[in-house]
What does this fold into?
Amino acid sequence: MEIRINGQDVDITIDSEKTIGEIIAGLDRLLANSGHRLSGLSIDGQAGDTSLLEQFFSREIDSVKTLDIYTKTIAELTAMSF
It folds into this structure.
């Protein structure tokens, strides 16, 4: 599976994760430490919205070719809410 964050290829080692949700949970901890938060998600070119999140998170990683993750800084997300 190819994983990109904000359009950049990243080299992430998948250890015991079986689903997209498990990958996102691990990345969310790393992002939080860098001042970023998850702002969007796309699997094989299909953008996720709130109605698809449960389906996306439960998806087995073996069935995914490309996972695109989008992040924003906390300041950017705060500015968007006004």
